[in-house]
What we know:
- The complex is a heterodimer of chains A (about 120) and B (about 400).
- Helices cover about 35% and strands about 20% of the residues of chain A.
- Chain A is α/β, with parallel strands linked by helices and about 120 residues long.
- Chain A has a single domain (about 5-105), classed as Rossmann fold (3-Layer(aba) Sandwich).
- In chain A, the strands form 2 sheets. In chain A, strands 2-1-3-6-7 form a 5-stranded parallel β-sheet, with helices on both faces.
- Chain B has 17 helices and 9 strands.
- The two termini of chain B are about 35 Å apart.
- Chains A and B meet through α3 and α4 of A and loops of B.
Amino acid sequence: MAKILIVDDEEGIRMLYSMELQDEGYEVITLPDGRELLQVVDREHPDCIVLDIKMREYNGLDLLQQIRRRHYDLPVILNSAYSSFKVDLKAVAADYYVVKSSDLSELKEKLKIALETRIPPE
Amino acid sequence: MKFIEDNPNDVTRADIVVGIPSYNESSSISFPTQQADKGLVKYFGRFSSAIINCDNNSPDGTRSAFMETDSKTPKIYISTKEGVTGKGNNLRNLFAKAAELSAKAVIVIDADLKSITPLWIRNLGEPLLEQYEFVAPLYVRHKYDGTITNIIAYPLTRALYGRRVRQPIGGDYGFSGNLAGIFAEWEVWNQSVAEFGIDIWMTTTAMRNRVAVVQSFMGRSKIHKVKDSLAYAEALFPDVINTIFELMCRYDGFWKDVKWSRPTAVFGFGSGEFEVPPQVEVETKRLSEKFSQGLGKFWNEYNAILTTQNMNKLQEVAELPFEGFEFPTGLWAKVLYDFAVAYRNNVIPRDELIQVLIPLYYGKTLSFVLETQAMNNQQVEELIEDQCLQFEKAKPYLVERWFSG
Lengths: 122, 405
């Protein structure tokens, strides 16, 4: 059972995603911002992170770079209400960019692909 | 591989090496040499470094143009023997020299670059002093610049090897001294690699060896000598595609188990500059003519190479009028996969097979241009990402065809 970490400053989003993804069979943990993100990743070893971008004093794109430096191949899906951040070069480091919607089909599809992604070990 | 060397400062060690491969670049090599020198002094002053021109015994005075360029960084000239040409051969000499100098980081830049700044040296070199071993460039590019990259090299290498390197044949790179050693010893080498195939060979070998790859933002377009982008693409095409297909044959044990793809880290934010890339014009009528002529000339070959289903689909595409012309990416991915299988199986001689692919490449380029005429560069990037996903979704088709004989 894959473990998904949801990072979003909106409680409603965290609750919705938790319910829907748990229904899909995932284990879900959530964070309201980036303050303890790296410690939680080190402790909980999520299989994928769904990361909001605009979170009050935290910028998801900057958090993404921090994650990438420490966890080269950890899947991260950027999830934002704004499509405009796609033009930001920092977004290249994310596996996928999904614009927020009440319909979570695209998020679920990209999550499935991110978890299936495999590069064989040496 | 033996080479000729001129090392007037008797450099025996260099932590950072900037290599500039060349052939007949006497009129252009001074500028990138100066920029490399400025970059090394400004960003890597605490390290020992050298700038190495790896040449093919150019008869036009490249050697003296390089050696006479003012620089604080010591310069070394090395060359293949007379009569031996090819960027790949130049870089093979560079790999050996970098090992001799115990280089930690090797940066390669083209000798005819007009848009390089000292920041490029930092952005291609600094990640190598951290945990990364291969640095690929991220240029600002016009949507019609780099069609081989956009339509073939990027989607195909991403689907095969599972790593998203947006510009796998950019031409300017960084790699660790360790990776240079791997490159020097790697047994997969042929004439295409020795020529223009070297760029895709390095990127693919880095991905195949699962080294940590980063993409570094250059902030500007790559501006060099190329005038006619279509003619330039046609010159590169055989070596690039031959190398991609040859490496597919060698690495099939690896790529068959790759599913989907992963991003790389990105470096070089706050590069200061973000220029609008120069306009690239594409002659759509010329592309259409080349596509149609090729279809007429090579129809029998396409019948031998493509599956019946894909041939039928190609026929449908061929019958489309210019105004509504479209070459669907799903079909294009399968066409490339069919060509790769045919290459492996020597259905027709390999050199001929690559030539036969060219008109279809023109057809897909035409389709891409027509589809994106009203799009800005960001919209085109999103389209390319969608197209890459289609290549990845079609991968099981390739695996099934490849391994069922």
